[in-house]
Structure formats: structure tokens, C-alpha cells
């Protein structure tokens, strides 16, 4: 039988009223065991006629006119249920028995997880983006993956978070420069943004075409929040320690106005990682005006200023000395902790949304959004001196151990000793935690700058900075407009149309943050005299002032622009036992770069470059076959193209306008097939999936030794550079992600459920992509281009990195009728890898530059040994949560607690990367075979046992 009811997100179509016959609509509320649910609130959206279910769970609305309606059913300790229905010319309409399920793992008990915008996101953007999925969901697999596995950086199906779509009030929040979503833009506002609609993986969505990592749609209408105040206080030992928030909602007044306002703060003087701090605010203002039952408008302001420090990855050697909470980015200055890596920013969002019920079959939502502001990330920089980082390889015990024990070395204080003695001294300092060695010595950096004799440089006299602080700044201005149109041909056939436009403008530059006691810093390349003799070395030739002071721009300055239009029509219909949803997409984007600095090495560094235009197309489909009311087969398929993001399009936008060679639209072909059981006693989803990705382009930057960097100097003579920062570009990268997913929830007692998850995947590279490199130390190569080819990177069948490829979970949930609950989960992760570094898997790695043949004695077995995949250790964890709620008259109190990693497992590596400083086989293998590898992979570790305690009070 065709169902007229469909579950949707908390915020969807407005109801319409039409002045014809009047109808009484009624239903009965029951729990999962079929028992009546009394005193649940039933809100008829767009109306003041809210009702409360009686002792047998019965409720009704009378005198409803023909039209389309939505109700929201809420009760403490139960999941919020949203339903839509249509009223025709009928006297009574029976909605039947409506089941409310326990809210055991609802967002009320998982607020902490959604707030995971911590340190790791800065270097693991693909992983961090999965935070967008950490919301309550009806699907058992998705729920466990989010709340229990997501804390450990598990990514379903191994899909990069950049492949998804996150929308706020109809507007895409994906940044055009790198494809990431900055969840910090609404950080701390959990109670405002916590009820999204999610179209998981590559299934089609009503609101956007999306990608293959879910569409998450959030709406923040002022009238949708519970009337009154809600206060929340949280304590945790994660990146922040405290969270306080207060929300007030007025409800819809008789004159048609509704207001919601919220403020939140999260802070920590020192987080769980050594030397980190956190200070972030969140503000929200929502105003809604209801003009009629057919028309309303909303205004939303969201602002979340923040300032916080981040933590470093390290080699295993460093972690062995100092533990997994070690952070190399801080040190003492005048006895106070100071971090060199501080992120701060404020990019507020202003949005206006119009809701218009055109007639009883059609509705139109229109959204306009503007976001602006700066995001700054500080770092320590230096010129003509050694890297001052305590984890720089020359400052670690392993470096002295790699030398001849009797070799003479210079101590930091200028005295000399043997390498053997230096090793013993360094080892003792690291093992004992001597902060003058293991952390930055800010006082020493100041002394070194201030002890210089004044000099005259480019017409300026003073002490130039050897060490100094800079900010890397993104100054964004983003306009968005979007429409969402729905037309219901019949009760079973719906047409959807989404049209969106984005105008992205971002000036990205470096500015002087702190001169550390010096008078100015020079805006020039300190290595130019060696690498490019005869050239100016200036980062901005022709400027009047090369000596830069605090607040001045230096290093680079350019503008990214991108305009993009997407059209997304879709059709949903039911016929017989089939429900079908087909969604299509056509898009066009135009991107360019404008340089504001004239770099001494690149002719195309200054001025506006060419426009790079891409057309995108796509098709998604979902077919649900209903065996009966509780057993289903579900197929989801997607085939679409996606234009490269700006940072993937340009090789090195900080200094030139060159694009990656052979860059194309990425093409994704994704398919999955599921068997689903949904009953009061058993929920199960078994899925097989296959996702192929072609034509992907990746760009990475790092330091490398041993590459044949042959450039051209000012007189046209060939130059040779052996060590430099390089950009590595891979084009036409092909990937395959396939596997099985199983999620099970069995209700063994009315109050007790057993839950389990299994995710068995295989995520590999399918080809050997072409690899290129570019370097600021070279500029144009002998071929006249700013990049050179290294040939193919032989990475076929290597595993992709970034997430465990196998994950298992088993747990229970007990929900007592007296409104308290307890639950626990055992979680296991395996088959986690680091991404293979392409540079050391090219022919250049094994090629002798003198003979242009492979190195003598190098065998295939030896090559396999040194280049074997970096597989990370498997781990298991125990999580638990508990809570209790009370309803006292008009007041509601909730206290809940979550403890993750109860056994304090500190051996789990959440991510990392291979260092490719040695780009030739002889030096690479020599380093690999040392007792302490100098350039071993760098890792991020799990932070050990963590807790989150949450108190909520509604009044």
C-alpha cells in the first residue's frame, strides 16, 4: 500500500491552509513495545494549535482545511519525530499508530562529539570533515559509526570528507579553495544546529546533489525551537575543558514574530595536549516573521570568534621520550607558556530565507547568504639561521647517534664536544623533560635578534629579524544564493528543483606577527644568493619598502576567485512496491588567481591570470523495493564529475599562476546495495558498496633532498639545487573503495538493546599516476616550465591512508522507564595505513643522476623492502555513557556523561604522513636502516582516556 506519510528532517516544508472543507486529524502515540506514550507535545507547524497526547497516547487537530501540514512530536527521552501529511476533502483523517523510539543515543547525550574541531583538523582536513556526520540518525550503522567510532577518526567507506555537502539554511558551507567545511564557523552552537537531515553516503538528497560523503542539511528557524530558556554546562578534558551556553526562544507570537538567541563559550587554559589553550565563543540570532500561513521569512546571524593553539605531529622517537601529549609548538617566555601555532578568526554569517507556499501543491524556498572575515594561523619563521624547533632532526638524540661517535660537534652554547657526548647529553635532556631542550626557547630567540649589530638594508637601518612570527591569512568574502522548489503532482509523485550560485573571493597573504625584539624583517628569499645567483631574491620586486614591520604583508599576496552555478532537478515517486528517487546535476564553475606580489622567479606571479572553466554533470538514483512493511532492498547509485578545487588546480598559488598539468574534472562512480530490516525489535542494515574515483588531482608541499633541481640563473646559465621546498603534483589519480557494512540493533528486553557494527573495506590506488614537482628555489626549469615531470608514481594496489579499513563495534543500551540510561561499547580498528609518498615511488627515486640508470645492486626485493606500506597498529577501545533526566513541573533537567577509551589506550595512531626529505634511494635506505630513523613518519596519537559531562536545564 502506498504510504502518504514520510519522515523528514526537523525543518522542512511550511504548512499551507486552504479555505475549503474542514477535517479532524488524529493519531495514537506508542513506544517500541506498543505501549501508549502520554504527555508528548505535538506541534502543528505554522499554527498556535499545539496539543498534548492524553493517557492513551491519543491526540487530534480539528478544523484543518485542505493543504499540506507538518507536525513535530517531542517528549523527553524520546527521539523527536517529524511527519508530513496532506488533508483533502475528508471529515476525518487517521494517521494511525505513530511509534516513538527511545532517545538513548540522541544528540542530547552526544554533544561533546559534535564539538570535535580540535588540533588534528589543521593537518587532517579530510578526516576532520567527518565531524559533519556526527549527528543523530535513524540508521543504526551510521549512528554507531558517528558516536562510537567517529571519535577515533573513523571515516565510513574511507571517503574523504571533501566529497560531501554541508548546508546551512539552504546554503552550501563548502569552501571553494580546498573543499573543506569550517565547522568552527558555528562552533559551540550545538543546540541550534544539532537536528539535521542526512542523506548518507552517495544517496540522493532533496536539498542538493552532493557527492559521495553525505549531504547534511541544517535549518535554523527561530520558531522551531522550544519556547523558553535552555542552559547547558559541560566539563571535559579534551581540546577545551569547559562549555557554557544559554538559549532563549520566544515562540511564535500572535502577531507572527518569533525570536531565538543563543550564546556559548568553550575554553581551556590548557587542553589535553601540552601547551595548548582554547578560547571560543558562539553567538546566534534568529528572527522569523510569519506573514500568513503561506508565507514567512527568517533572518539568521551566526558568529563564532575563536582563538586557540594547535599541537604538532611527531616521530615515534619523540613520543617514546615524552608521551602522546607532547607538543613541540610551545615554550616558555619570561616563565609563561607561549605557542607559535595559534589559530584565530571571526567569519560571521548573515542569511535571509524566504518560505512561500505557492499553492496546495507547490512551495518555494529562497536563501541569500553573505559571509566575510579573516582566519589567521601563526607560525615561527627564520632567515639564515637553523630551524629552532626542538624536533628539528639536528636537535634530536638520533642525529648525534647517526654521526661518527668521535666526530666534533658544536653545542647550542657554542662550545664543542664529541658526537657521542652530545648524544648522551641530548638523550638525558629529552628523557628528563628539560624544557630548555624539549620546547621552544623564546628568550633565546629574542636574545639572538637583539644581540645583532644594526645594519642598513634597502635604505632602512636597524636590526633585521633572524627569527620572527608570521600569520598566514585568509580574508574571505562569500556570497551565496539558492532556491529550493517542490511541486507535488500527486500524493506519490514529487518534483524537486535546486538552483545555487556562489561567488567566492579570498585574499590570501602572509603578514608579520611579531619581530621578537628585532626592528624589521626583509621581504626576500634568504637562499637566493646560493640558489639563484644574480637575481634579486625579492618576494615583491619593485616595492618601495622591503623592510617589513608588524602588520605588513610579506612572502606572498594573491586573490582567489571562483563563481559557480549548480542546477539540481529531481523526481521522487512510488509505484507498487517501489519507491524511486532520481536526481540530476549540471554545474559550471569559473576560477582564477590574481597575484598582488611580483615574485623574482615567476613571470606569471603578478596580475590576474586566465579563467579556468569547468562543466560538471551528474546523476544519482535510489530504488527501494519493499518486500513488506519491515523488509527492504535499497540500491543507491551515483555517477558525476567535480571540478578541481582552487588549491588542487594551481601548482603553487602563493608565488605563481601555473596550473597542474593535465588537470581534469574528477569523476566518481559509486554504487551500493542494502538489505534493511526495520521493526520494533530488530533494526539491521547489510550493505555492499563499490566506489571508483578517476582523474583526481592532488598537490602536496614538503622539503626534499637529492632531487635534480636544475634551474636557470639571471644570465641563462643552468643552476643546480639539491635541497629545497617542493610542490608535488599527481594527476589522473584513480582510487577504488569497496567493502561491506553491517549494523544491527536487537531489542532483547523492552529496556535492553544489543548493538553491533562491522565495517570491512579495502581502499586502494588503482593506477600509477603521473607525478610532477615544482620548487621556489628553482623557478623555471630548463624546459621553461615552473614544474618538471618525474614520470609515474608506482602506487598501484597501495592502500589509501587516513582511516581504519576495518572496524567492529559491540555494545548494549539499557533505558530504564524511570528516565535513566546506561550504555557501553567495545570498538576495534585494524588495517590503518599511511598514504604512500609518491615522490619516493617514482623512477627518479632509483635513478642515478650521473649514469641515468638504476643504482648498482638495487634489486626488486630490496626496493619492496624499503618502500613497503606503512601499516599502523590495530587497537581496541571501551566507551561508556550514562544519564538521568527529570521533569519537574515546567522544568526539565538532564545530566549525562560519556567516557571514551576507558582503558586509556595511548598506542592508537589516528593519522600521520611519510616524510620524503630523502628523495633518493641511497640516502633513504641508509636512513631507514638506522637504529633511529632521522626522517621517520610523523604521527598523531589518540589522546588517551577522555570524558564529557553535560548538564542541561530547560525553563
From TrEMBL:
Highest taxon of the lineage: Bacteria
Q: Where in the cell is it found?
A: Cell outer membrane
Give a yes or no for keyword Cytoplasm in this entry: no
Which keywords does this chain's UniProt record carry? Answer: Carboxypeptidase, Cell outer membrane, Hydrolase, Membrane, Protease, Signal
Q: Where are the transmembrane segments?
A: none
Q: What's one Pfam family the UniProt record gives for this protein?
A: CarboxypepD_reg
Q: Secretion signal: which residues? A: 1-21
* InterPro entries for this protein: Beta-barrel_TonB_sf (IPR036942), CarboxyPept-like_regulatory (IPR008969)
Keyword presence, Protease: yes
State a single Gene Ontology molecular function: carboxypeptidase activity
One GO cellular component term of this record is:
cell outer membrane
**What name does the UniProt record give this protein?**
Carboxypeptidase regulatory-like domain-containing protein
Specify the taxonomic lineage.
Answer: Bacteria, Pseudomonadati, Bacteroidota, Flavobacteriia, Flavobacteriales
Amino acid at each position: 500500500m502506498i504510504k502518504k506519510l514520510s519522515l523528514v528532517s526537523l525543518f522542512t516544508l511550511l504548512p499551507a491552509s486552504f479555505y475549503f472543507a474542514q477535517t479532524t486529524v488524529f493519531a495514537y502515540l506508542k513506544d517500541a513495545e506498543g505501549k501508549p506514550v502520554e504527555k508528548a507535545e505535538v506541534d502543528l507547524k505554522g499554527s498556535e494549535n499545539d496539543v498534548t497526547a492524553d493517557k492513551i497516547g491519543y491526540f487530534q487537530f480539528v478544523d484543518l482545511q485542505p493543504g499540506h501540514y507538518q507536525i513535530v512530536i517531542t517528549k523527553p527521552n524520546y527521539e523527536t519525530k517529524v511527519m508530513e501529511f496532506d488533508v483533502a476533502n475528508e471529515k476525518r483523517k487517521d494517521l494511525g499508530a505513530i511509534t516513538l523510539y527511545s532517545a538513548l543515543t540522541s544528540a542530547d547525550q552526544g554533544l561533546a562529539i559534535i564539538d570535535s574541531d580540535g588540533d588534528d583538523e589543521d593537518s587532517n582536513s579530510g578526516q576532520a570533515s567527518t565531524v559533519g556526520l556526527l549527528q543523530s540518525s535513524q540508521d543504526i550503522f551510521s549512528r554507531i559509526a558517528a558516536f562510537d567510532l567517529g571519535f577515533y577518526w573513523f571515516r565510513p567507506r574511507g571517503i574523504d570528507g571533501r566529497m560531501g555537502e554541508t548546508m546551512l539554511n539552504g546554503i552550501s558551507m563548502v569552501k571553494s579553495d580546498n573543499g573543506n567545511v569550517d565547522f568552527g564557523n558555528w562552533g559551540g552552537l550545538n543546540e541550534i544546529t544539532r537536528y539535521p537531515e542526512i542523506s548518507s553516503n552517495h544517496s540522493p538528497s532533496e536539498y542538493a546533489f552532493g557527492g559521495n560523503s553525505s549531504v547534511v542539511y541544517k535549518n535554523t528557524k527561530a520558531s522551531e525551537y522550544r519556547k523558553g530558556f535552555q542552559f547547558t554546562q559541560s566539563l571535559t578534558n579534551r581540546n577545551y575543558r569547559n562549555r557554557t551556553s544559554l538559549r532563549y526562544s520566544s515562540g511564535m507570537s500572535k502577531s507572527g514574530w518569533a525570536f531565538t538567541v543563543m550564546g556559548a563559550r568553550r575554553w581551556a587554559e590548557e587542553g589535553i595536549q601540552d601547551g595548548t589553550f582554547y578560547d571560543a565563543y558562539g553567538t546566534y540570532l534568529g528572527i522569523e516573521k510569519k506573514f500568513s500561513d503561506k508565507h514567512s521569512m527568517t533572518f539568521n546571524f551566526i558568529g563564532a570568534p575563536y582563538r586557540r593553539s594547535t599541537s604538532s605531529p611527531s616521530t615515534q622517537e619523540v613520543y617514546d621520550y615524552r608521551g602522546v601529549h607532547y607538543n613541540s609548538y610551545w615554550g616558555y617566555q619570561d616563565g609563561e607558556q607561549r605557542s607559535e601555532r595559534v589559530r584565530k578568526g571571526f567569519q560571521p554569517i548573515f542569511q535571509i530565507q524566504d518560505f512561500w507556499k505557492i499553492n496546495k501543491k507547490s512551495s518555494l524556498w529562497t536563501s541569500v547568504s553573505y559571509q566575510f572575515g579573516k582566519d589567521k594561523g601563526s607560525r615561527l619563521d627564520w632567515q639564515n639561521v637553523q630551524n629552532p624547533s626542538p624536533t628539528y632532526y639536528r636537535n634530536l638524540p638520533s642525529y648525534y647517534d647517526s654521526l661518527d661517535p668521535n666526530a666534533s660537534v658544536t653545542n647550542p652554547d657554542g662550545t664543542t664536544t664529541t658526537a657521542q657526548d652530545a648524544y648522551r647529553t641530548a638523550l638525558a635532556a629529552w628523557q628528563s623533560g628539560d624544557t630548555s631542550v624539549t620546547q621552544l626557547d623564546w628568550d633565546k630567540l629574542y636574545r639572538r635578534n637583539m644581540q645583532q649589530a644594526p645594519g642598513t638594508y634597502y635604505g632602512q637601518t636597524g636590526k633585521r629579524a633572524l627569527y620572527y612570527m608570521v600569520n598566514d591569512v585568509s580574508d574571505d568574502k562569500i556570497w551565496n544564493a539558492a532556491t529550493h522548489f517542490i511541486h507535488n503532482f500527486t500524493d506519490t509523485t514529487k518534483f524537486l528543483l535546486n538552483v545555487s550560485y556562489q561567488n567566492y573571493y579570498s585574499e590570501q597573504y602572509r603578514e608579520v606577527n611579531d619581530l621578537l625584539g628585532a626592528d624589521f624583517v626583509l621581504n626576500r628569499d634568504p637562499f637566493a644568493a646560493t640558489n639563484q645567483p644574480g637575481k634579486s631574491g625579492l618576494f615583491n620586486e619593485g616595492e618601495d619598502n622591503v623592510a617589513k614591520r608588524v602588520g605588513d604583508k610579506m612572502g606572498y599576496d594573491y586573490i582567489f576567485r571562483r563563481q559557480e552555478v549548480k542546477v539540481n532537478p529531481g523526481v521522487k515517486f512510488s509505484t507498487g512496491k517501489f519507491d524511486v528517487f532520481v536526481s540530476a546535476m549540471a554545474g559550471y564553475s569559473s576560477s582564477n588567481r590574481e597575484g598582488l606580489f611580483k615574485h623574482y622567479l615567476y613571470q606569471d606571479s603578478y596580475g590576474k591570470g586566465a579563467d579556468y572553466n569547468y562543466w560538471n554533470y551528474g546523476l544519482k538514483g535510489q530504488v527501494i523495493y519493499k518486500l513488506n512493511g519491515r523488509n527492504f532492498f535499497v540500491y543507491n547509485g551515483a555517477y558525476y564529475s567535480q571540478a578541481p578545487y582552487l588549491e588542487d588546480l594551481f601548482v603553487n598559488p602563493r608565488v605563481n599562476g601555473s596550473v597542474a598539468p593535465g588537470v581534469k574534472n574528477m569523476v566518481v562512480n559509486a554504487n551500493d546495495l542494502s538489505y534493511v530490516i526495520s521493526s520494533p525489535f530488530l533494526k539491521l542494515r547489510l550493505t555492499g558498496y563499490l566506489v571508483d574515483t578517476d582523474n583526481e588531482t592532488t598537490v602536496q608541499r614538503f622539503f626534499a633532498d637529492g632531487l635534480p633541481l636544475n634551474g636557470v640563473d639571471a644570465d641563462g646559465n643552468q643552476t643546480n639545487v639539491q635541497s629545497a621546498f617542493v610542490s608535488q603534483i599527481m594527476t589522473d589519480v584513480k582510487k577504488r573503495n569497496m567493502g561491506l557494512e553491517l549494523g544491527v540493533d536487537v531489542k532483547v528486553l523492552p529496556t535492553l538493546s544489543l548493538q553491533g557494527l562491522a565495517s570491512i573495506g579495502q581502499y586502494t590506488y588503482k593506477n600509477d599516476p603521473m607525478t610532477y614537482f615544482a620548487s621556489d628555489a628553482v623557478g623555471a626549469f630548463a624546459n621553461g616550465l615552473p614544474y618538471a615531470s618525474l614520470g609515474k608514481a608506482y602506487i598501484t594496489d597501495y592502500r589509501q591512508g587516513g582511516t581504519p579499513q576495518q572496524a567492529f563495534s559491540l555494545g548494549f543500551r539499557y533505558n530504564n522507564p524511570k528516565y535513566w540510561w546506561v550504555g557501553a561499547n567495545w570498538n576495534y580498528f585494524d588495517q590503518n595505513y599511511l598514504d604512500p609518498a609518491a615522490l619516493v615511488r617514482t623512477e627518479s627515486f632509483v635513478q642515478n643522476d650521473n649514469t641515468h640508470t638504476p643504482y648498482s645492486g638495487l634489486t626488486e626485493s630490496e626496493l619492496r623492502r624499503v618502500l613497503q606500506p606503512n601499516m599502523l597498529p590495530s587497537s581496541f577501545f571501551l566507551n561508556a555513557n550514562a544519564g538521568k533526566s527529570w521533569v519537574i513541573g515546567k522544568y526539565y533537567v538532564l545530566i549525562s556523561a560519556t567516557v571514551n577509551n576507558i582503558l586509556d589506550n595511548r598506542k592508537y595512531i589516528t593519522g600521520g604522513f611519510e616524510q620524503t626529505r630523502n628523495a633518493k634511494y641511497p640516502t633513504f635506505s641508509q636512513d631507514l636502516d638506522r637504529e633511529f630513523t632521522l626522517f621517520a613518519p610523523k604521527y598523531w596519537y589518540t589522546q588517551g582516556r577522555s570524558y564529557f559531562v553535560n548538564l542541561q536545564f530547560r525553563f
